[in-house]
User: What shape does this take?
Amino acid sequence: MTIILKSKQVNSIIYMAFLLATTLSLSACVGRNVLATSKSSTLSTDRIAEIIASPDRSAADKTNDLRRKPELVLAFIGIRPGMVALDLSASGGYTTELLARAVGPTGRFTDKVRLEILITK
Assistant: This one.
């Protein structure tokens, strides 16, 4: 039995393999740091409120806050300043922006959209 894959399917498989490899690589790079970081370094409720209330966030994002509950999302994820983060389900950038603000200047952040651009170049 011969399986014929179309070019789009092959590209999709390659892309998914790349995302998996990237995720595993990032996990290996930060794994020790995450385990060594104490629970007290997670974002405080006050810091989460500051991120959400940032004056340079768009009015549309602030409207979305009412239904998307970013304070609960950021607390649940457990993101901390200085982390390396990858948003695999980025689309409009709402959560991407919040995560980038949460890791701060000492952290690193990328999203799926930027990875797609890097892959196609």
